[in-house]
Amino acid sequence: MKIAASIIGAGGYTGLELIKLLINHPIFELVSIYGTEYHEELSTLYPSFKKILSMPVLQTNIQSIVQSSKVVFLALPHQKAMEYIKILSKHEIKIIDLSADYRLSLNQYEAFYTRHLDAENLNNAIYGLPEYNRSLIAKSNLIANPGCYPTASLLAILPFIPYLDSTQTLYIDAKSGVSGAGKKLAYTSHFVNINENLFAYSPITHRHSPEIDEQITKITKTSIKILFVPHLIPLTRGMLVSIYARLKDIINPLEILQQHYKEEKFIRICDYCVQIKNVVGTHFCDIYAKNDGKDLFITASIDNLLRGASSQAVANANLMCGLEETLGLPKIAYVP
């Protein structure tokens, strides 16, 4: 049995990763690819697909998608995604949105992004972090696929929320490869600027800060102040977060992680500091933690384009369609 799937937004990095995942998926059948511009062949957009996949990149047509697909992935910028979802959600189709359009409450979204065009659908969207929302994802037709920074940060910190001193600030120091900035030309991601360089950007006010904050509160029913600072590093892909917190009592952090994630196939608890190289090209999230008395250090690493976007979208689609969550998810890292 095959399930027809389409991608809207083939021109970006996450769209490219979705194509690579879906053509190797045992159940999903990629029936159409859409972009902002028409290309007679996918290989004219991505020459690496020559002699691998022959398929046109079409201009988006909602009626065609609804008629041909059971699942649709939207790899579009914020605001653009909701324009399509507002229409698609009226049909019997599973939707996985990789933008930020349905991740936040209305007030937070409009404060950090722009005016929302589909506010009535916000309550229908489920935040697609499988380890914490698995049963809700399975019943949903609209998934808000988490951001890359929030994915790594939440998977690292959520097991420890019951043990933290909630009167103290939670500090998240995050670093991402340049692919996280997308294809859009910008001075900060210009080769001459990012090569042999490292810098923070949007400290404290980054758009992923309220996403992390809201999900901590929703999932744990606990409010804690966070200070989130992202950095851009001269790597193509990969992400590492380092988290600093204050405990209420002394604990064994590795034991807590191992117990909390003992049933999770794509969470690896390490007894050493995690490295980006070990997860790039995979759906894994590697986590390590250590404490000095009541001072807690946690570090986690993911592939920002896969676990932080496209492979997580596929995991969500698997659940939505009643499939084994792990189907088609990449396991082998790009090493060396």
Total count of strands:
14
Q: Could you tell me the strand content as a percent range?
A: 15-25%
Specify the CATH homologous superfamily of the largest domain: NAD(P)-binding Rossmann-like Domain
Q: Give the averaged pLDDT, no decimals.
A: 96
Pattern of helices and strands? EHEHEHEHEHEHEHEHEHEEHEEEH
Distance between the ends: 37 Å
By secondary-structure content and strand pairing, the structural class works out as: alpha/beta
Question: Any guess at the CATH architecture of the largest domain?
Answer: 3-Layer(aba) Sandwich
What CATH first level of the largest domain would be assigned? Alpha Beta
The count of helical stretches stands at 11
- The CATH topology of the largest domain turns out to be Rossmann fold
Any low-confidence stretches, pLDDT <50, length ≥5? none
- Largest beta sheet: what is the strand line-up? 3-2-1-4-5-7-6
Number of domains: 2
The radius of gyration computed from the alpha-carbon positions, rounded to a whole number of angstroms, is 19 Å
Sheet with most strands: 7 strands, parallel
Helix content: 25-40%
Identify the overall geometry: globular
